[in-house]
Design goal:
Order of helices and strands: HHHHH
Oligomer: single chain
Number of domains: 1
Number of strands: 0
Distance between the termini: 12 Å
Strand content: under 5%
Largest sheet: none
Shape: globular
Amino acid sequence: MSAKSDSLSRARRTIGVLGMLAAGGMIILATTLNNPTYAMLALGFSGFFNDLSMPGAWGACMEVGGKLAGSVSGSMNMIGNFGGALGGVAVPWLMNLTNRSWDKVMYVAAATYLIAAFCWVFIDSDERLEE
């Protein structure tokens, strides 16, 4: 591992953690705002901060995967799609469970971002699947 690759891995990790924390924070902020326009702006910024971390995620897939980067990227994308599919079932269930409280749904989404930020701490793009 060279100093350059360690620096690149650390940069990806830092952007990933900060992006996920900011995205979750914007969702929490949206639940506190009474003005719908401001709430939608906060949710829009949540999407922005989420997307800010994406180049690092795809870059980590390329670094870790090497010749297998397509398989690693496909796996990451598939797992993300499983999460999206689960949301379609979980949101109505949570709405019924919480007496139709969108705030609770948003808290779960924010918690998901917190978990993602925690996971980013352990991602080391210097670890290769193959040499």
